[in-house]
Amino acid sequence: MSLRPELIELDTFGIPCFLVRMHGHEPLTAALVAQAEAERRADPRGRNYQGESTWHSQDELHRAPDYADLRSAFDLAIEALWARVGWRAQAHPWEHVGLWVNISGPGCATHTHEHWGHGGSTFSGTYYAQAPPGSGGFRVENPDAYLTRVERECVLDLEPFSVPRWFELQPAAGDLALFPSWVEHCVMPNRSGAERISWTGLFTTPALAAKPLGGAERGWSRPERGWLEHPNPDPLAAVD
């Protein structure tokens, strides 16, 4: 397998989300389509989330030796991202903590969710093995876009001052979306006549999971970032 990752930064409201275009992906993609279908045959019920109609496999496929090539593709994506910010794998190693396949037939979608609670993951990636035109965009939600009450009661009054709520990516086979695990995201309904097949991987790094560095250690010169060095106060600490 000879993959060549091309890292493209997405305009996602300042959130570090990326499209990794995998050149030379065709052999891997073909194998992953066949493997996805085999996983579904072995477990027709799969896992159901929030009443979705999308079929999901179990989420520990990263432990299976059959998916070494896919793990390597995710590794290439993380390496490209680390290189963008000047990190090296030796100083900031990562671990695979989750992997599953999603198969969405016509009309199927994925509700808004995040991956923060999956195995302590810090970054997530979704590799698209089959994504025909119209099979549903990948959406990232702007965390600053709206308040539920404002949207419900004042949407007409505030419409001239609204900010974008969603960024939508239209992926193709061989594309890999890479995003922080805390990001709220969803997948739009599949309006094509074929299935959309994607694989989601989760990653964590001991360096990111360890005690945060202080501002001076990070080299920050902006004093307003100093709040990061202090824990949030406990509102009940002074209550008898």
Automatic annotation (TrEMBL):
Q: InterPro entries in the record, alphabetically?
A: CHP02466
Q: Where is the composition biased (Basic and acidic residues)?
A: 219-232
Q: Which SUPFAM superfamilies does this one have? A: Clavaminate synthase-like
User: Sorted alphabetically, which Gene3D superfamilies does this protein's record hold?
Assistant: q2cbj1_9rhob like domain (2.60.120.620)
The family database entries (Pfam families) matched by this protein are listed as: 2OG-FeII_Oxy_5 (PF13759)
Q: Which residues form the signal peptide?
A: none
Q: Where is this region: Disordered?
A: 214-240
Kindly provide the name given to this protein in its UniProt entry: Fe2OG dioxygenase domain-containing protein
Native source organism of the sequence: Enhygromyxa salina
